[in-house]
Amino acid sequence: MGHPCHATSLEKAGRGGGWSIFTSDWVGADALDPSVNPGLRGNGIAAPWVGWLTDFKLEELRIQWLKATEDSSQRQIAAEIQQRAFEIVPYVPTGQFYPMTAYRNNVKGVITGPALFMWNVEKV
């Protein structure tokens, strides 16, 4: 079978040695708005994942959102992006999880956030 990264780089169907579905996860900051949400991209072959959909309308809406200068315009375009996502279903969320992290009792200054921050930590 080989490494999973090898399978996702193949542009073939599953029976041809490629894939038909894979899982991934994002932290909340990765999907904060349409400019950074990888699941709301329609840029096909230029996408971060091989086999990702091509949807020019979704990409055009994303560009419009990025160029919008007023909050009301961004909200309207975001609603259109959401509507388009319901029409084409670029991804299907299958769950949510909350990772737990434990720290020794002689560590202080740990910053909790959407990622592991390695600064501000010190031993007491």
Protein architecture, described:
The chain has 124 residues and is mostly helical. It has one domain. Helices cover 28% and strands 3% of the residues. It has helices at residues 4-8, 56-67, 71-88; strands spanning 107-108, 122-123. It has a two-stranded antiparallel sheet. 8% of the residues are buried.
Task: Summarize, please.
The protein has one domain.
> How many beta strands in the DSSP annotation?
2
Cα-atom Rg, whole angstroms? 19 Å
Largest sheet: 2 strands, antiparallel
**Which regions contain 5 or more consecutive residues with pLDDT less than 50?**
none
Overall geometry comes to flat
> Which structural class do you get from the secondary structure elements?
mainly alpha
Number of domains: 1
Q: Overall mean pLDDT score?
A: 83
What is the element layout, followed by pairings?
Elements lengths: L3 H5 L47 H12 L3 H18 L18 E2 L13 E2 L1
Antiparallel strand pairs: 1-2
Features:
3 helices; single chain; mainly alpha; 3% strand; 124 residues; 2 strands; two-stranded antiparallel ribbon
